[in-house]
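Example 3.2
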Amino acid sequence: MKTIVVANVRMVQKYDSESTKGCNVFCEDENDGLNQNLIGPIQLVIGGALDHFETFKAYEKEGYLPGQFELSVDVTRGSGGKAKLTLLSVKDPSLSRMKKVTETRPDNTAGKA
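Structure, written as tokens:
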């Protein structure tokens, strides 16, 4: 089953070993408070191809990451019958009218010679 997800992407991680390679897209959503066993935002991980890492890297340089993205995903059954989400494509956030990140980031070059 394929669907479109608007997700608050917080981080993207790549992995590349001899046996497997790809990326994980870490998303979060507000906690609705219905589950008393959960504290803090809800986390969701979407797997994807290694090429998607470079796409997100470019969007991060443009100021869109972390932020909201429109993602095309494939929903299948994973281990234990749980839903498994696989990233198919990322819509350019400038076409989606998504806002750029406005928070300030620490300058890692300060104090270096």
